Amino acid sequence: MAGAVTNTPSLAATQETFPLLHSLEDPSLIGVGYSLAYPVGILGILAVIIGLRAFSKTDPIEESRKFEKSLGEINPPLQSLSLVVQNSLLIGRTIRDLLLLSPGTFSVSRHFSHGIMRVAAPDQILAQGDILQVIAETSSFVHLHSLIGPAHQENLATRHGSLIFRQIVVTRRAVLGHRMDPSRLDSALAGRVVITRLNRAGIEFVPPPGLRWQFGDVVRVVGEEEDVEAFAMLLGNSHEELSRPHLLPLMLGLAIGIGVGLIPISMPNLPVPLRLGMAGGPLLVALFLTQLRPVGRFTWQLPPATNELLRHAGIALFLSAVGLEAGQAWSQIAHPTIVVQIVGMTLLLTMTPLVIGVIIARLFFKLPVLQVCGLLAGSMTDPPALAFVNQIAPGNMASLAFTSVYPLVMMSRVLAAQILTVLLLK
C-alpha cells in the first residue's frame, strides 16, 4: 500500500512497527512489495493527470494565467508616486508623523524641497509645496491624494542625483530578530537610509512598524551611496551565506523531530502504540520551528539549495536501502502470478481514490483542472507528479494546492500504515 500511494515514510513506519508485533512473516517482503508497487503508483497518478487534462474542456495554461492574475490582485505590486504636500494639517509635522497616520500602507523614500533632494528621514519637517516620493499599492493612491496632496508631474525616482536605491539581502545572523530600523543597527545611519520595500517569501510589501528581520529578507533601500554600502554590510548582503547550509540548527531540529517521532501514542484496542516515526516527527517539528523567530544566531529556515540537496539525497539513500533489502527476498516471490497479483492490487489501490477524487472535485466542487492535479499530487505525496503538472502549465496554482494538503496527508499516511500493519498482523 505504501508503494501504491507513493509514500515512502509510510513504508518506514511499517518497517518500524513490524518488529514490535513479533510476527513470523518475513519483514523483507515489505520492501519487495513496495519496490513493485511504487513504479505502478507513479504511472497511475500520471495517467490520471493526463486523462483529466485530455477530457477537460478548459485550457490549463489559461487557468494558470487567470490564477496568477488573481494572485496579483490579492498581493498587488508596489508602485511609486510623487505627491505635493498641500494638506495644511501636515505643515510643521514630521515624516514620521505622516507615516503613523496610516502605518504599514505606504513608505516615503525621497523628500524634495527648495531645489534640494534628500532622503525622507523620519525627523524631516514638512512644508507647504514639498514633494514626497511615496511607495504604496495602487489601491491606496486615492487615500494618499486626500492625505498629502495632488500628484506631481515628475517622478522623483527618475531625477538624477546623489541618491541611489539598492536591494539588500539579509544574511548577517547578528541582526536577525531585531526591528527593521537602521538606527537600531547603527546610530550613524539614523535618517540617512530609508527602507521602502520588503520582499519576504516572494511577497513584496511595505514593512509595518515593529517588523523584525528574518534570514533571507530582501529590502530595497534609498540613500547616499556610501550610506547604502554601510547598511548593506550591516545586513550581510552575502549570496554565498544565503546558500550556505546551517548545520547546527538543522541537526538540532532533526534531533527534536526524531524525539517527537518516538513519542508513543496509545490507541484503544491496539496492542502497540503508534508513533509519528522518523518522517512524521521531523515534519511536524519543522512546521512548528519555521514559524518561530530566530533564536540568537539560530535561524530555522533552510537555504533552498540545502533543502533541495537533502531532499533528493535522503530519498535516494532510503530507496537504495530498500532495494538492497528487497533484493535478498526477491527470489522468494519472483513468480509471474504473484507479480501480476501485486501489480493488479496496486492499480486498484492507486486508481480508485484518484478517480473518486477527480469526480468529487470536478463535478461537486467545480475546481479548476490545475488545482485538482495539485491536490491529487499532494494526496499521493508525490513531488514528481507536481513537477509534471508544472511542466504542463507553469505557475503557482498546482503548487499551492499541493502544499495545502501535503502535511496532513503525510501524517495520516504514517499513522494509517501503522494501524493497518497492526490490524492485519494482530
Explain what this protein looks like in three dimensions:
This protein is α+β, with helices and mostly antiparallel strands. The protein has two domains: 8-70 and 244-425, no CATH class; 76-241, Regulator of K+ conductance, C-terminal domain (Alpha-Beta Plaits, 2-Layer Sandwich), CATH 3.30.70. Helices cover 53% and strands 12% of the residues. The protein contains 15 helices and eight strands. The chain has helices at residues 8-17, 28-55, 60-74, 95-101, 141-147, 182-185, 225-235, 239-243, 247-261, 277-289, 304-333, 336-364, 369-379, 383-392, 397-425; strands spanning 78-84, 106-113, 116-119, 131-137, 163-169, 193-200, 203-205, 218-224. The strands form two sheets. Strands 1-4-2-3 form a four-stranded antiparallel beta sheet, with helices on one face. A four-stranded antiparallel beta sheet has the order 5-8-6-7. Strand 2 (106-113) and strand 3 form a beta hairpin. It is elongated, with a radius of gyration of 28 Å. The model has no long low-confidence stretch (mean pLDDT 85).
Features:
single chain, 426 residues, alpha+beta, Alpha-Beta Plaits, 2 domains, four-stranded antiparallel β-sheet, 15 helices, 8 strands, 53% helix, 12% strand
